[in-house]
Amino acid sequence: METIYLLIVLAPLLGAIVAGLFGGRIGRGASHWVTSSGVGLSALLSLYVLFGFVTGGLEVFNGAVYTWMVSDGLRMEIGFLVDQLTAVMLVVVTFVSFCVHIYTIGYMAHDEENWPGESLAGSNSYQRFFAYISLFTFSMLMLVMSNNFMQLFFGWEAVGLVSYLLIGFWSVRETAIFANLKAFLVNRVGDFGFILGIGAVAMYFGSIDYAEVFARAPELANTQINVWGDESWSLMTLICVLLFIGAMGKSAQVPLHVWLPDSMEGPTPISALIHAATMVTAGVFMVARMSPLYELSETALTFVLVIGATTALFTGLIGIVQNDIKRVVAYSTLSQLGYMMVALGVSAYAAGIFHLMTHAFFKALLFLAAGSVIIGMHHDQDIRNMGGIKKYMPVTYWTSLLGSLALIGFPGFSGFFSKDAIIEAVHFSTIAGSGYAYFAVLAGVFITALYSFRMFFLVFHGTGPRDEHAKAHLHESPKVVTVPLVLLAIPSVLIGFFTMEGMLFGEWFRDVLFVLPQHDTLARLGEGVHGPVSMVAHGFAGFALYFAAAGVFAAWYIYMKRPEIAERIKSRFGIVHRILDKKYFFDELYQALFAGGSRGIGKLLWSLGDRILIDGLIINGSAKAVGVVAGWARNIQTGMLYHYAIAMILGLLLLLTWFVI
Amino acid sequence: MQFEMSSLMPVLPEIFILSAACVVLVVDLFLKEERRVVSYGMAQISLLLAVLVTLFTATGERQILFDGSVVRDAMSDVLKIAVYLISAGAFLYAKDYLRDRDIFKGEFYVLGLFAVLGMMVMISANSFLTIYLGLELLALSLYALVAFNRDSVQGSEAAMKYFVLGALASGMLLYGISMVYGATGSIEFGAVSQALANSGVDKRVLVFGLVFVVIGMAFKFGAVPFHMWVPDVYHGAPTAVTLFIGSTPKIAAFALAMRMLVDGLGVLHADWQGMLVILAVLSMGVGNLVAIAQANIKRMLAYSTISHVGFILLGILAGTGKGYTAAMFYSIVYAAMALGGFGIVMLLSRKGFEAERLDDYKGLNERSPWFAGMMLLLMFSMAGVPPTVGFFAKMFVLEAVVSVDMTWLALVGVFFSIIGAFYYLRIVKLMYFDKPVDETPLSAGLDTQVVLSVNGLAMLVLGLFPAGLLSICAAAVG
Amino acid sequence: MTFELIVFYLFSAILVASATMVITRRNPVHSALFLVLAFFSCAAIWMLAEAEFLAIVLVLVYVGAVMVLFLFVVMMLDIDVATMKAGFIRYLPVGLLVTLAMLIEIFLVVGADNFGLDKFPSPAPAAADYNNTESLGNVLYTAYMYQFELAAVILLVAIIAAIGLTLRKRSGTEVRQQDPSRQVKVKKGPDRVRLVKMEAQD
């Protein structure tokens, strides 16, 4: 089996290397073939692994593939931990990635138009794009298959790196460069916490191997440490919160969420792959993987819960006022990530992962559908310019509808099961902050339905595009674009129905995710639910379904039936609209406080430290010193034999005098 | 002593290389000028066969033969195999260079094989006399190689300096050995070590002799202040020879230090540790600082060698198994790095043109992105930038030094290697950010290109997987 | 003071004096001759130490062969003594200082304190039938066989190096070379002797 696991990881890497280093030589066709088939192979093998676990034919694999080095007893290894959780992630990552690879063939077909003619970066951009997404797949697989913190960190940073590269892919656009810098800087904040967390683990556990750390966790559960002064902190809380700060950066949780909407500057396929389906869920995966640690600290769980609930509610609100089609989907992603975090916060890890999986499918679908619309609209992304696209793009329309229904939680669709499970789990939870979270997730249901269908109606229904020229060119996207849409639509609708029982209440995650009995909200929910049909019936008894229906209706009424209401609301509640439109002024705040402040500090340090101290004293001073010494030594190196000989004799004398006499 | 044939088996590698050198010498006489490549091929095949011979005759046990003259242990096997392989690389890179300059002669390979033999003798030496003879065999071959291009005044001058200074150093070494003999009554390492362990041996005479022994070794390494020959010889010798001198003899020098100081005079560790500290600090300092001021890449690499020697000495002076392992790792890695570095210099050279000036490296990326990449890896490795293997070599050495509570020395090492990074990275800057001065396309045989690529990539691969070589070294040091 | 001691000091004095002369004489032929003297006195001292074989070999090989060859070369070369000695006076003070320091340090260690007779008692004199040559031969071909072979290899390398560096085939009319096959074909008459008329030189 080890060979298969290695193959799953290495096939995309090989594709990335071939397309990245030799893309120019082998051409476009070969590049997309080699990368797609690499990822395709991974996807097939991942399915094989998943089925192995489903049928019980596979054992959990936990072993080192290679020991990189041992430093002071700390083993640094490349190793794989493949269990049910990993298997699910493998399939999600490789399947979505495979769809995105195929989709990209169509989406990037005319990429050269996006580059100014003389741009050097524009040459082979098509091949480079494929190399990046394959490299991303490799990194993401390394992350989810890791059995230790070091490899986790490697995958964590590697997916981040590819993400920055792809956000700034169109490097000639200033906005793209700004967005990728922003993503990079915001993630630094998160990663700082993350590496501190890993450091704390290494320091107190003396190991960075998952199994060893988890095994030792209970005995360290009540350890108190002094971080600052006499204040004593719970070690477990500290580690969990630090790790979660990393997750907040990567999974874009408030207040580190600001980079995700801007990341939409990247090409749409990567928005689907990286910024919706896989990378941004790494934080969720990480917390679920660390469940043996998080379970030991209720403080940390509450922290996760509150952050998640806040994200779920407030970023959803912003989605209502956005006009860029991709940004609407991006805010919806933020909100859904908040849901997943809420699930983790109430110890319903399985629900979080379940939502991660269903979300990956329907959100990738929505993004790719949005991309299809964007192709049709010739890269115009403003939904106010769209409308009535339904009749021009039927496949896109129907798949979008399925995706949106899944997103709002239409009974029986995959999103319904996962979201309802989360809401109910919060309902059953007694942990601090669960009351607030329950309110947030319920309100979020209404808001989700409202912004999803606002966008849906504005784009596909109503009158046609205002621009006649655009209208004339509007037609369905090519097969390479629509086939992935259909491929993704199938699991978006069905996967919840078939897997919910096993994943939420069954045996599937029992040995993988650790939940203390007093936290086990899903078990309590499971008592009342027997199979998907009963879950749907149960859904009709709750509030969530009616909130969603109300949201859809409100969207239809406000934006289709009586568009003037929207205008009136906008003028009546100007302040609210403005706050939402400006995204609660987070960007302005950060810009003023951190960017401006750090620039001020930077300037001060630069003039004081850099120019006077470092440049003047250290750099120039040391350069001068080096020059003097070098010149002096060059003078000694005269080329005269007897000078050399006398130098040796003097050296001899020196050593003799020093050591003998 | 009863002579036994079985005692010949462990020295079969030496016998094999000696025979090969003689065969090449004779065959070469009957070859026409245009068939000279046959001698080259024979030399290469003998080196590769020597790897097999060494592997097949290896027992893994420590054997002492010829009345204590020779030792065959795991360390000697590993070091010998490293010497064969790196020498084979040097021979290969040298081929086109020599042919372009009309000095493609069989003697180059004959002398090269004799030098390899000398190194093997040093690596396997178990007595002061053996190690001295090996040293002389190596040195004599190298003197002749440096003067190989007889029409080059620079080469002859360099050879002359090397010869005279080498003779001086040999004299000192012999003097030191005579003192050790006087104090202990033996020249065999085991017996010397035993005599030292018994109290009552005159410490003062021993340390007096030790100073001379250390100097003989320091000269071979090229440690400051016994380094003066290094830049002149590296600069004056034909690049093909510089490549050879700059790579494998460092491995032999490591063996020299291990055999004499550790096997023989290990009891005096406290004394030679102090001497090596001085040599190491001076070498790292002078090597790195002066390298910055060089405009000639061969001279620059010469000073870089000096600084690397300082690092190897750091590992040895730690005096622990960890330190010896680190030093062994470092010397093998350094030999491979130097091989690649000079290989690139030769790749850029052509008939009537020596790519010696730093300016010749400007814009290499535009002329050949692949080999610019290889040079980048090599320079990164020399500078000690992760994830190349040079980083680990430095790290292991520093770790070893820290573990014997000489943190200040590790800090000195780090300080100087930061200074050193400047001139390696300057080459990278020239290659990638400057416009080429010279637009001639690179012409090199496929074999050179392939081996050079392997050489460059090895820096990266060994850096990603350092544990393999490290564990081999650790096992060899025992 | 025994007779042996007198002989020892006598030859030692001659050795040191002649060695000094070797490096201070202006005329290289004189230097070479003083070196011969130094070897002789050295051989005498070895004789005192009952190392007869080595003493004889020193005289035979070094004096008889090496030095004669050396003298031969020195006489054939036109060495510009003046330039060779140019820096001599200038560097003399530094040289003397270093020499002095060195001497002091060596004496401090290699003095009677460490190498006196109490530390190193003189070995019992060998029996009359003791054969120096035979016992040397015995160890040389047994215990030191490996080193002996190595020394042979070193000599081989020296030969290769010397020939490799000096043997050159030059073409062109101005380089005169011997061609044995043509030499033996020489016939009587004009082949052997050719009269050339030249103008007188000043």
Automatic annotation (TrEMBL), chain A:
Q: Which GO terms describe its biological process?
A: ATP synthesis coupled electron transport; electron transport coupled proton transport
What keywords does the record list, in alphabetical order?
Answer: Membrane, Transmembrane, Transmembrane helix
The family database entries (Pfam families) matched by this protein are listed as:
Proton_antipo_M, Proton_antipo_N
Q: Locate the NADH-Ubiquinone oxidoreductase (complex I) chain 5 N-terminal domain: which residues? A: 68-113
Alphabetized InterPro entries for the sequence: NADHpl_OxRdtase_5_subgr, ND/Mrp_TM, NU5C-like, Proton_antipo_N
Q: Where in the cell is it found?
A: Endomembrane system; Membrane
Taken from the UniProt entry, a GO cellular component term is:
endomembrane system
Fetch the NCBIfam families from UniProt. NDH_I_L, PRK06590.1
* Name of the protein: NADH-quinone oxidoreductase subunit L
TrEMBL record, chain B:
According to the entry, every stretch annotated as the NADH:quinone oxidoreductase/Mrp antiporter transmembrane domain falls at 125-419
Q: Where in the cell is it found?
A: Cell membrane; Endomembrane system; Membrane
Please give the GO cellular component terms listed in this UniProt entry. Answer: endomembrane system; plasma membrane
- Recite the UniProt keywords alphabetically: Cell membrane, Membrane, NAD, Quinone, Translocase, Transmembrane, Transmembrane helix, Transport, Ubiquinone
Pfam families, A to Z? Proton_antipo_M
Indicate how the chain sits in the lipid bilayer: Multi-pass membrane protein
> Has keyword Transmembrane helix?
yes
A Gene Ontology molecular function term for this protein is:
quinone binding
Mark the transmembrane ranges: 12-31, 38-58, 78-94, 106-125, 131-150, 162-184, 204-229, 241-262, 274-293, 300-321, 327-348, 369-386, 406-425, 457-477
- Cite the InterPro entries for this sequence: NADH-Q_OxRdtase_suN/2, ND/Mrp_TM
Q: What is its main location?
A: membrane
Q: Which GO terms describe its biological process?
A: ATP synthesis coupled electron transport
EC?
Answer: 7.1.1.-
Q: Which reaction does it catalyse?
A: a quinone + NADH + 5 H(+)(in) = a quinol + NAD(+) + 4 H(+)(out)
Q: Could you tell me what this protein does? A: NDH-1 shuttles electrons from NADH, via FMN and iron-sulfur (Fe-S) centers, to quinones in the respiratory chain. The immediate electron acceptor for the enzyme in this species is believed to be ubiquinone. Couples the redox reaction to proton translocation (for every two electrons transferred, four hydrogen ions are translocated across the cytoplasmic membrane), and thus conserves the redox energy in a proton gradient.
User: Its quaternary structure?
Assistant: NDH-1 is composed of 14 different subunits. Subunits NuoA, H, J, K, L, M, N constitute the membrane sector of the complex.
User: What is stated as this protein's family in its record?
Assistant: Belongs to the complex I subunit 2 family.
The protein's name in its UniProt record: NADH-quinone oxidoreductase subunit N
This chain's source organism reads Candidatus Sedimenticola endophacoides
Q: What is the lineage of its organism?
A: Bacteria, Pseudomonadati, Pseudomonadota, Gammaproteobacteria, Chromatiales
Instruction: State which gene encodes it.
Output: nuoN
From TrEMBL, chain C:
- Cytoplasm as a keyword of this entry, yes or no, is no
Q: Which domain of life is it from?
A: Bacteria
Q: What is its EC number?
A: 7.1.1.-
* Membrane topology type: Multi-pass membrane protein
Question: What stretches pass through the bilayer?
Answer: 6-24, 31-49, 55-79, 91-112, 144-167
Q: Has the keyword Repeat been applied to this entry?
A: no
What catalytic reaction does the record list? a quinone + NADH + 5 H(+)(in) = a quinol + NAD(+) + 4 H(+)(out)
Q: Which UniProt keywords apply?
A: Cell membrane, Membrane, NAD, Quinone, Transmembrane, Transmembrane helix
Compartment(s) where it occurs, according to its Swiss-Prot or TrEMBL record: Cell membrane
Query: One cellular component GO annotation, for this chain's record?
Result: plasma membrane
**MF terms (GO), sorted A to Z:** NADH dehydrogenase (ubiquinone) activity; quinone binding
Subunit info here reads: Composed of 13 different subunits. Subunits NuoA, H, J, K, L, M, N constitute the membrane sector of the complex.
Per the record, the similarity remark reads:
Belongs to the complex I subunit 6 family.
Q: What does this protein do?
A: NDH-1 shuttles electrons from NADH, via FMN and iron-sulfur (Fe-S) centers, to quinones in the respiratory chain. Couples the redox reaction to proton translocation (for every two electrons transferred, four hydrogen ions are translocated across the cytoplasmic membrane), and thus conserves the redox energy in a proton gradient.
Name of protein: NADH-quinone oxidoreductase subunit J
Lineage, broadest ranks: Bacteria, Pseudomonadati, Pseudomonadota, Gammaproteobacteria, Chromatiales
